[in-house]
Each structure stands twice: as C-alpha cells, then as structure tokens.
Amino acid sequence: MNFSNKENNEQLANYLREERQQRHLDLEDVSEKIGVPIQHLKNIESGNFDRFDTFYLKMYIKKYATYLSLNVEELYQRFYGTQIQQEVEVKVQKQKVQKRNRNLSRLAGIVCAVLVIGLGVFYVIDIINNVSSDEGNNHVIQNPNSSNLVGDANDSTSNDPTPNALPQQTVEDELESNQKQSVTTISKVSQDAKEIVFDLVTNESEAALKLDFIAPCWLSVTLDGQSLIAGETYQAGGVFEQTITSDQFGTLDFNVGDATAIKITVNDEDVEFEPTTPHQYIKINIKTE
After folding, report:
1. Domains 6-83 and 184-288 agree in fold
2. How far apart are CA 20 and CA 289, in angstroms?
3. Average pLDDT of 39-63?
4. pLDDT band at 230 (very low <50, low <70, confident <90, very high)
5. Eight-class DSSP state of 68
6. In what order do the strands lie in the sheet with 206-213?
7. What is the DSSP letter of 142?
C-alpha cells in the first residue's frame, strides 16, 4: 500500500491526533513510550507522509496506533479501503499472469521431455533393428581349398543373445528410474475470509520450504506449535529457507501481514492461492505418501 492520496492521509492524521487528545496524552510522552522521535509524530499528525519511506511510515503508524489501542489494519481499511482493494486486484491479476506463464513453461517442458523420450526409444529400436539386420546379412565365403571352417565360429558369434539383451535392459532401467522419481503434490482443502488450508503429500524424506518476498512483509511461522519465525519484517528480495525432515512433518502455520508480498514453495512446488485480504492465515499439512 502507498500513501499517495493526500486527502486520505490528512483524514488519518486528524483521526490519530484527535484520538490522542481525547486520551489527554502529551506527544512528548507518547514519543518516549514508543521510541519514535517526536518530530516524526508531528509530521504524521500533520499528514506529511511524503517525508518518510513507506516501510518506516507504516512501522511508525503501527506503533502509534497500537499505543492508542487502535487496530492499524482497521485504520487502513477505513481510510484506504478502496485503494487497498484496487492494489489487491492488481496484484492478484499479476499473480494470475505469472501462474499462466509458469503453466505454459511447464507444458513446454513436458512436450520437450516427451520428444526426447520418443527420440530415445526410436534410437534404441533402430539399434536393435540394425543388429538384427547385421546378423541376417553376415554371410561367410569359405575357401574350398581350406580345411578351416570359418563359418562355424561366425555362426557361434551370431547366436550370442547379448547384443539384443543390452538395449532391452537399458529401456527397463530407464522405466524403473522414472518410477522412482520424487513426487510432491499440493492441494487446497479450504478457504474462508482469513484462513487458507492446504494438504501437501510427498514421497521424499524432506520438505524444502522456501519463502520469497516481493515486497516488505511481516511474517511469523510455526511448525506444530514450534516457532520457525518468531515474527519479523522481511524486505523485498528477502528469502527464508528451512529443511523439514520426515520426522518433523506436521502443520505449518503462517501469519502473513501482506499475503500478496510473499511466494511460498515446498520441494520446488508453488503453494498457489489468491488472498482474500492482505492479512492472511495459511496452514500447510505436510504428509508422507
């Protein structure tokens, strides 16, 4: 969210100032209590939001509103609701385009893989046919004046089944290798206004969790009640990675300040969702296949 609308900024500034004055709080005391310089608070109460970087402005407003016992998310919704909705719609549309592009890339990869496998099978069949053709055309012309029967040795060699067996064994090994490929599937179980639930099923012994941040985002994560991220703000371009072993498989709980600012992947598979609100709760139940 940006603070480009000066009218909305002034309305929020006036509201914060009035709430402080109604509580008979001195601005210097508030500054000392929340650790924000008094000049910053004066600028905020004057609506001079353009003097701050967006990230720090949101942090100062959150500290100020919390001290006044106000819910900062409700404040943003009250004074910037239309703008927030438009920004969410733009981000959701962008995610749809990215998803479509990823699906096209995957489809292209599958087509290429099928072509490669088809060429490989054709190559093996061609080798088998060539070997069989060479065996059928292997004629030996004997010298009638010679007592050595060269043809007997060649016949013995031509009956060796090894050349035919090798290509067949190669195909079987390739099929067996394909059957052992790692598989991770992610499916959405439910979604309501605030919470989205996924089931993740994998045949791997580990679940590689990766979080990519495309915008500043506050986040906390637990695994079966154990804290992975206690609660901190990541900047755009930030990355968090955690390997979860099979004996730790359970439920990942995400408390995300801005669900449009984060990309979640497990074992290189995207956890795809369309947030209903910026502040979102996400659960991922990790299970063994």
Report:
1. no
2. 56
3. 95
4. confident
5. T
6. 239-245, 206-213, 262-266, 269-270
7. P
Question: What distance in Å separates the CA atoms of residue 209 and residue 282, rounded to the nearest whole number?
Answer: 14
Calpha distance 109→40 (Å, rounded): 53
Farthest CA pair distance, the chain: 127
Beta 184-191 vs 262-266: how paired, if at all?
Answer: unpaired
Domain boundaries, the chain: 6-83, 184-288
Q: Does domain 184-288 have CATH number 1.20.58?
A: no
What integer pLDDT is reported at residue 39 of this predicted model? 97
pLDDT of residue 22: 96
DSSP per-residue codes, 181-227: ---EEEEEEEE-SSEEEEEEEESSSEEEEEEEESS-EEEEEEETTEE
Burial of 63 (0-12, 13-18, 19+ CB in 10 A): middle
Q: What is the pLDDT of residues 107-161, one digit of tens each?
A: 998 998 999 999 999 888 989 888 776 666 554 445 555 445 444 444 444 455 5
Domain 6-83 has CATH 3.40.50.720: no
Give the Å distances, CA to CA, from 283 to 117, 264, 286: 38, 12, 10
